[in-house]
Predict the structure.
Amino acid sequence: MDIGIQQSIWGWRSETVDRGGTKQVLESLRAGDYLMLGHQGPNPRVLPGRWADASLEKLVVARLSGAVYQDTAPVWPDDVYPHRVRLDILEIQENVKGHMLGPGAMEALRLSANKQGAPVLQQALDAVDLLIDSTAGEAADSDTLDDPADRYLDIDGALDQRARTFIRREQQRLRAKKFGKAKRLQCALCRRILPSQVIHTAHIKRRRDCSFDERRDLANIMAACVLGCDVLFEYGYLYVGDDGTIHASAAAESEPGLEEAVARTLRQDCTEFNEDSRPYFAWHREHVARKAHP
């Protein structure tokens, strides 16, 4: 499970897929569907309904980022698990009680445990809503007391939350960890010191392309003002070179209307550039700035 979380992937053995209609279940899955993974529950060989009040040591909620595919490239050390799906890890909770998911989801998890982890379909999203409601009271500012030298946000999961649509509930915690409760912050690109309300907590490497650890890595976070720097960086009109200085991309140079907007930052040192953030800026330079189109 830890490997699956870190690499945002899940897989099933061929012998599991060949039994009991599992192949048809997997073929029905689409991007945007949810996958719940339960770990360390009680003995599943009990009568239906007996898991309603059971406890799970860990629960992972993920959203599928594509359909099931087959691949034999090594991922796990014990077996191939060739029937795979890419995941967007949304939530990780420990010590989950049955009432937090509801009897339907708990019964599906019990059935899956009896079928070598084969997926069991649940059409409703009740379990997702119940989990959100049961964890809604978690304090977002608890991370501000951690050692500021820690690079990673100290949470196992909680990187998204569904409230009819998904909101990035880690964003507030990343901001608190990185910047505390400062009323004024310095934009890492234009260097203006501005009210915190006009400073965004921006991922350097695009969030949707990040691994689980990269999303919570504070070295991948910078302050970017909404007066232009945030959007110019996001769409690759500005980038940071390998020496830490800020440059305009070819796309920006081909747009006369952007000249004044980018001029403030050019050839300045990015305040967030260091050895830890260097690979994230390199990714942005290669995958965003060089591919930006006017």
Q: What stands out?
A: The chain has two domains: 2-135, 172-289.
